[in-house]
């Protein structure tokens, strides 16, 4: 009788048996940011939502559409809007960990417009994934103070499921802090140890176009040491309030004043005040006018680490505090910045031809004055031996500014070395490189491998700049972040999965009883060297009871390279009678070697036991590959694919249970007729609970 119930459910109320992808908004507070905030260049979290598969079968998410709302112009305010999967599951955006979903967009096509992100992602029954909306605010037209930007999930595209929960309510979104002033605070810093000498100038440069003649500016000018726009932090939330560590003056050098800007409390020293008893304010006469002062401090404050704010005098229109802004360090000094990049996959004997290949890049940036770089020191790191793996190490200036090494075009800086003096050692390149004010030049580390002792598979070689010698004082950015350089290419097995849903009977045995090809797994050694496969783990999903629905589960290799399973294919490892549990996993163990660039095709082959029910389905996924000998893997775990759909009764007598089989329970024709009458009256009311498997799973 159970099979008849399920058949009726499938015919009359099919939607009741489908998977459901539920979209739930994750409420996060509104993020208050400056109008050009980029989250330290990698974006910041401005919304989140979760998608969960509450059905009993697998489903595939194909696309997500976001729609913008709010008072700001979504077509001009952003420079990037992206979606990320919360890969590390910590609920926050981590640029180096989370995985982009779909393509990135520079902005919405229009104000309050929509963007669709397309990428196929499988959801097993019960699976839940969090998506993060990440933005950058320095678009074509900067937004104004108090404008807001919010987002809703307006639709999702799915296969094999019914989406619910859309459209969502709006996310907390983004709020813009007070707009920038037409003033710019610059400072110069000299000295090699504390106390450091500072000189300041408050300059009317009218960079935001808001200056009107007659504007008067009062205090306080305040200082706080915090990274401006540091990733993962609210701008200037943490303040250091040590009265001996900040240069202040000339009008007031003693008071510490509790105040608030953008809703963030702080205590900071005041420079001067427009209120009694001080009664002082500054009315610049025109663009280029400036106010200067000097001071000393025991703390070295680098470019972008000092915050400041002013307000128009209370008698002026639009009075009140301005956005906390970074003070800008100027003068004769250089900043060194590592250029982010991924490690190069190369063979142990790679030379790159000519002088070699670039494994790292570093930008050197001058500021308001000319400067000369005289030397630069690089420190090696990584698991490989830098003293023996290289045969040539050089530094080049990217003369044509294209970001890559061009032999015969780029200019060598300093001498060539055959290797580092020791593992994780340092090399200093000495030369003269002149910089104009506010100029950036890129330097490229170029190497050849095939040294006295060849590197081995899996080893890494990385670099950072630890010191420079140049004109000026207190150069910044040192030591730089480590730049990934070389990864010695290991033999790599790349997994590709495919399957076509087959309609089968619940006791299908395949042609002449050899089994049914359910899915296909292609493994390819895409790198140099021999790859070693030791095991393949296959995970089951779907509504079919995997521990009882099969008579056997096996993996075969396509030994005759026919592209489909047949009787001549060879069994890979021992077969199993079924999965150990519903939605469980089976590990097939056998060691196989893959030559360079060799591919092997495997088939998941099953025979059904006769216990499945009509409308059951079976999904499969390669959950893991066991490898050894330095072998690496790509594409693991593999794609979850739908393989089988039980859509008919057995073509042959069931294995046991009499003519009607176990599913019929011995019902007579009259009992079936009575059931029809009852079922047609109540079928949709009991759809959610009628099926034993759906309620007990």
Descriptive tags:
697 residues, mainly beta, Immunoglobulin-like, 4 domains
Describe this entry's structure for a reader.
This protein is mainly β. It has a six-stranded mixed β-sheet with strand order 6-5-8-3-1-10, with no helix packed on it. The protein has a six-stranded mixed β-sheet with strand order 39-38-41-36-34-43, with no helix packed on it. The chain has a five-stranded mixed β-sheet with strand order 2-11-9-4-7, with no helix packed on it. The protein contains five helices and 44 strands. The model is unreliable at 1-17, 226-244, 248-279, 314-321 and 653-697 (pLDDT under 50). Helix content is 5%, strand content 43%. Strand 16 and strand 17 form a beta hairpin. It folds into four domains: 16-176, Immunoglobulin-like, CATH 2.60.40; 183-329, no CATH class; 340-488; 492-648, Immunoglobulin-like.
């Amino acid at each position: 009788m159970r099979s008849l119930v399920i058949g009726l459910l499938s015919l009359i109320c099919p939607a009741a048996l489908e998977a459901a992808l539920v979209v739930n908004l994750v409420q996060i507070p509104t993020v208050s940011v400056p109008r050009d905030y980029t989250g330290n260049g990698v974006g910041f979290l401005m919304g989140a939502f979760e998608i969960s598969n509450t059905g009993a079968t697998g489903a595939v998410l194909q696309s997500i559409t976001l729609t913008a709302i709010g008072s700001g112009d979504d077509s001009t305010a952003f420079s990037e809007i992206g979606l990320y999967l919360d890969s590390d599951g910590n609920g926050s955006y981590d640029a180096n960990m989370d995985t982009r979903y779909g393509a990135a967009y520079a902005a919405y096509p229009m104000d309050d417009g929509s963007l669709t992100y397309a990428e196929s992602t499988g959801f097993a029954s019960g699976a839940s994934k969090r998506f993060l909306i990440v933005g950058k605010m320095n678009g074509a037209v900067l937004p104004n103070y108090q404008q807001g930007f919010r987002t809703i999930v307006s639709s999702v595209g799915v296969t094999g499921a019914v989406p619910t929960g859309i459209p969502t309510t709006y996310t907390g979104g983004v709020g813009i802090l007070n707009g920038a002033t037409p003033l710019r605070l610059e400072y110069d810093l000299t000295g090699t140890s504390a106390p450091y000498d500072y000189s300041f100038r408050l300059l009317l440069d009218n960079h935001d176009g808001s200056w009107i003649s007659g504007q008067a500016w009062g205090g306080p000018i305040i200082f706080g040491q915090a990274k401006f726009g540091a990733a993962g932090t609210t701008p200037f939330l943490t303040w250091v309030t040590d009265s001996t560590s900040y240069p202040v003056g000339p009008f007031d050098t003693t008071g510490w004043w509790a105040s608030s800007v953008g809703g963030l409390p702080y205590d900071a020293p005041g420079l001067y005040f427009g209120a009694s008893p001080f009664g002082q304010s500054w009315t610049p006469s025109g663009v280029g006018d400036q106010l200067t002062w000097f001071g000393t401090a025991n703390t070295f404050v680098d470019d972008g680490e000092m915050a400041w704010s002013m307000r128009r005098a209370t008698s002026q229109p639009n009075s009140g505090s301005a956005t906390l802004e970074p003070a800008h360090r100027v003068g004769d000094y250089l900043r060194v910045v590592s250029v982010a990049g991924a490690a190069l996959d190369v063979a142990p004997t790679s030379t790159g031809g000519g002088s070699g290949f670039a494994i790292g890049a570093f930008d050197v940036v001058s500021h308001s004055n000319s400067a000369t770089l005289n030397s630069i020191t690089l420190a090696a790191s990584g698991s490989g031996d830098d003293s023996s793996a290289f045969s040539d190490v050089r530094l080049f200036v990217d003369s044509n500014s294209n970001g890559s090494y061009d032999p015969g075009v780029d200019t060598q800086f300093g001498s060539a070395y055959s290797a580092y003096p020791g593992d994780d050692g340092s090399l200093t390149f000495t030369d003269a490189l002149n910089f104009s004010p506010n100029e950036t030049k890129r330097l490229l580390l170029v190497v050849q491998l095939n040294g006295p002792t060849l590197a081995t598979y899996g080893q890494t070689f990385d670099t950072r700049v630890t010191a420079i010698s140049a004109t000026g004082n207190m150069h910044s950015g040192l030591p730089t972040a480590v730049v990934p350089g070389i990864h010695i290419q290991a033999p790599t097995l790349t997994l590709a999965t495919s399957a076509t849903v087959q309609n089968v009977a619940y006791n299908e045995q395949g042609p002449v009883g050899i089994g049914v090809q359910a899915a296909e797994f292609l493994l390819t050694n895409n790198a140099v060297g021999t790859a070693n496969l030791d095991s393949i783990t296959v995970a089951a999903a779907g509504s079919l009871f995997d521990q009882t629905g099969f008579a056997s589960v096996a993996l075969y290799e396509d030994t005759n390279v026919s592209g489909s399973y047949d009787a001549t294919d060879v069994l890979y490892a021992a077969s199993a009678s079924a999965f150990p549990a519903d939605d469980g996993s089976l590990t097939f163990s056998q060691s196989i070697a893959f030559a360079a660039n060799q591919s092997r095709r495997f088939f998941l082959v099953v025979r059904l036991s006769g216990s499945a029910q009509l409308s059951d389905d079976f999904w499969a996924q390669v959950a893991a590959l066991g490898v050894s000998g330095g072998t690496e893997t790509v594409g693991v775990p593999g794609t979850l694919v739908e393989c089988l759909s039980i859509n008919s009764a057995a073509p042959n007598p069931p294995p046991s249970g009499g003519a009607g089989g176990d599913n019929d329970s011995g019902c007579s024709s009259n009992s079936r007729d009575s059931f029809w009458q009852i079922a047609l009256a109540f079928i949709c009311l009991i759809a959610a609970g009628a099926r034993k498997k759906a309620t007990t799973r």
